[in-house]
Recover the amino acids of this structure.
């Protein structure tokens, strides 16, 4: 589209490097929704285009804008049938064919999705897409515009085909290519939205909904969720992590450190130096956040680099190892590959960190997470004998892990999470004496967890979850003195956990354990006691195993935030000794067992608990501790209470329903009796789900339930309720699900009184 001075979309002076994002072009014409990728049909259509139209000059003279000459018009476009058949448009006389249909096979799935659904481009992040691919995608859209553009009118100074010629001829930076593609995607999105608009039926809302809903959905997908190691992870896995957003800053559970990302469109954005990162860490020193591994070069690294006898040989070996990694893992398809194979200084390559930015050797860190590496993990990486930090997570690496990695005596961090590695975990890794963080999760490892890992005296984090490991959990590994995080979840481990659990707390008050996750395995025997002398323990999860017996009558450390032992075969009563007034427990999950007995009074006295789930046990009986026994009002933080499918009796405690932060209350399928009356319902302002079905409640339904503005799910079915149905309940605008069947209610009053103020007949 021509600008004020007659220039085209790609016609400004290259010396000025003007951005393209500010040129908003609203295309209010309905384009036919044909596929935008190159095809034989498109090529034939291009071949039939008029050569005279495409070869026309952009202007009839040297136009000026603010006194400055505009770049000369583009060269005529070669539109021969052979060139069109190749899916490429190039300036006449050019020797190389650019942007061919074969190149489109290398587009990332994200970019292909953007081409197919242009409205998603408003929220998609293209930072990791190569500039050449973005420019190619823009060329695809311009081909479409050129082939559907009307002939050039006399005196016209801008045309879509001229823009296509310019886009093919020039080399765009990442910022220019991203801005151009977003502009063209915007035009396409507007065109699709226009097709939904009908002036007669005034369906413009449909067009606005298309764009708004698409942008909202994609923006949610684009949120980068990170785990406790600071690495991106899927939304499914993130939802399974215990995150306590409402905790005080001094009791943060998991570290979430977003990566330092360059601004979209700026390939030369300066990365933060290690000194800057250290200063940031100093400012955050007051927070209790687990930090492991390598924080950048230190004095010893600098000293070692100065004592090298043969720097040239070391530089040659490092260059050979990194080049081998690039070639064996299909480096040409990496998402980020800035500087790679530039022989001048491999320390400046993407993801490579040496002693200093100016150094020519001494690789200390190799970090290429989520970068599209595909192929066999090369064991030659073990020749980087200075390496302290290796992170190749979130790629498509396959093969086995070589025992040669155990020879890397300086390695502190080894992260190979989320790949396709298989075989056995090599016991030789136990020789990597400096290792502090070992993450092999989400792969296909089999066999036993090697007991040789107990030689890693500096190990602070071990994560082997989501594999196919079998056998018992080595007691020696659990007894490592500096261990803070141990996750073996989602494997096929078996045996008794009593020994490993006892080893976890062997160090008394010096124990540094913070997280233990052995869920979703096949552990048997009695449930292990939580180490009482682990003052920093936050999470203890042994759910979804085959353990039998009673819960230990021991008191966990006051620091414990999450205790989960659901979906086992536990019996007996919930011990009152598990809960003390100083316990900082946030989440308790004992669901899906065969527990019996009554609920302990100490459970209903926890001041910081947010989620309690003891559902699906069947034989938990007696009354819910209430006023006169305990003061439930101290449980002000409680958000969810689920004791469904048990044998609870007695009345519903009024103080429980009146807790200010309660969102979910599920006591269905019990034997509760009494009435629902009480003034506390008006205090349940945040209650979203109330399920009391399958009890023996009697009396009338309180009208206050219809006044709860947050209530979306209400189930009172299968009780002995009677009396009139409150009109306010029937006409409540926020309710999405209501079931009050199986009672003896009087509906006649609803018809006589009519709908309440603001309710429509449809809502009634």
């Amino acid at each position: 589209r021509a600008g004020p001075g007659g220039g085209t979309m790609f016609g400004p002076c290259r010396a000025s490097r003007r951005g393209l994002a500010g040129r908003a072009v609203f295309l209010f014409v309905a384009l036919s929704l044909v596929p935008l990728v190159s095809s034989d049909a498109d090529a034939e259509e291009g071949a039939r285009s008029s050569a005279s139209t495409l070869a026309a000059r952009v202007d009839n003279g040297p136009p000026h804008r603010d006194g400055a000459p505009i770049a000369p018009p583009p060269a005529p476009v070669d539109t021969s049938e052979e060139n069109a058949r190749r899916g490429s448009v190039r300036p006449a006389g050019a020797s190389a064919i650019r942007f061919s249909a074969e190149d489109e096979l290398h587009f990332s799935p994200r970019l292909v999705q953007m081409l197919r659904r242009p409205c998603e481009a408003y929220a998609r992040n293209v930072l990791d897409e190569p500039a050449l691919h973005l420019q190619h995608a823009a060329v695809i859209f311009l081909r479409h515009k050129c082939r559907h553009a009307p002939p050039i009118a006399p005196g016209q100074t801008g045309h879509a085909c001229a823009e296509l010629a310019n886009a093919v001829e020039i080399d765009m930076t990442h910022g220019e290519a991203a801005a151009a593609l977003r502009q063209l995607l915007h035009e396409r999105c507007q065109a699709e939205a226009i097709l939904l608009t009908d002036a007669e039926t005034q369906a413009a809302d449909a067009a606005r909904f298309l764009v708004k809903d698409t942008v909202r959905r994609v923006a949610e997908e684009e949120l980068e969720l990170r785990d406790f190691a600071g690495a991106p992870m899927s939304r499914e896995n993130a939802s399974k992590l215990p995150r306590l957003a409402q905790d005080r800053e001094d009791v943060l559970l998991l570290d979430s450190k977003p990566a330092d990302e360059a601004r979209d469109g700026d390939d030369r954005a300066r990365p933060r130096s290690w000194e800057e990162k250290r200063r940031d860490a100093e400012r955050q020193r007051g927070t209790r956040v687990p930090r492991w591994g390598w924080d950048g070069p230190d004095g010893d690294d600098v000293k070692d680099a100065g004592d090298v006898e043969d720097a040239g040989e070391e530089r040659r070996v490092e260059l050979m190892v990194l080049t081998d990694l690039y070639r064996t893992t299909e480096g040409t398809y990496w998402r980020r590959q800035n500087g790679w194979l530039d022989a001048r200084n491999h320390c400046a390559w993407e993801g490579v960190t040496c002693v200093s930015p100016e150094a020519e050797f001494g690789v200390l860190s190799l970090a290429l997470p989520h970068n599209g590496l595909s192929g066999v993990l090369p064991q030659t990486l073990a020749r980087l004998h200075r390496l302290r930090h290796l992170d190749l997570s979130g790629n498509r690496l396959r093969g086995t892990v070589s025992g040669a990695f155990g020879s890397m005596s300086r390695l502190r961090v080894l992260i190979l999470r989320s790949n396709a590695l298989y075989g056995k975990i090599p016991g030789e890794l136990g020789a990597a004496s400096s290792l502090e963080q070992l993450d092999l999760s989400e792969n296909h490892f089999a066999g036993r967890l090697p007991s040789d890992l107990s030689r890693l005296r500096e190990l602070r984090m071990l994560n082997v979850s989501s594999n196919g490991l079998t056998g018992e959990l080595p007691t020696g590994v659990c007894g490592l003195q500096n261990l803070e995080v141990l996750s073996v979840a989602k494997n096929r481990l078996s045996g008794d956990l009593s020994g490993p659990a006892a080893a976890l707390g062997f160090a008394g008050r010096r124990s540094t354990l913070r997280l233990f996750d052995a869920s979703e395995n096949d552990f048997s025997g009695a449930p292990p006691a939580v180490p009482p002398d682990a003052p920093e323990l936050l999470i203890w999860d042994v759910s979804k195993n085959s353990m039998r017996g009673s819960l230990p009558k021991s008191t966990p450390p006051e620091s414990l935030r999450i205790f989960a032992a659901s979906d086992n075969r536990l019996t007996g009563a919930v011990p009152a000794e598990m809960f003390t007034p100083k316990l900082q427990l946030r989440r308790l999950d004992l669901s899906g067992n065969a527990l019996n007995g009554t609920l302990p009074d100490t459970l209903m006295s926890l001041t910081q608990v947010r989620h309690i789930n003891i559902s699906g046990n069947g034989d938990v009986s007696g009354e819910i501790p209430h006023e006169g026994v305990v003061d439930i009002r101290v449980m002000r933080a409680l958000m969810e209470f689920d004791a469904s499918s048990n044998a609870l009796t007695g009345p519903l405690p009024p103080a429980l329903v009146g807790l200010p932060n309660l969102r979910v209350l599920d006591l269905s399928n019990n034997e509760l009796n009494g009435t629902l009356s009480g003034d506390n319902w008006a205090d349940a302002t945040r209650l979203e789900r109330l399920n009391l079905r399958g009890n023996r409640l009697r009396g009338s339904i309180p009208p206050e339930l219809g006044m709860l503005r947050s209530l979306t799910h209400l189930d009172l079915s299968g009780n002995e309720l009677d009396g009139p149905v409150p009109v306010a309940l029937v006409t409540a605008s926020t309710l999405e699900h209501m079931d009050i069947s199986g009672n003896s209610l009087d509906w006649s009053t609803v018809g006589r009184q009519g709908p309440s103020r603001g309710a429509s007949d449809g809502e009634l």
In short: The chain has a mean pLDDT of 75. DSSP finds 17 helices and 38 strands in the chain. The longest strand covers residues 363-367. Residues 174-195 form the longest helix (22 residues).
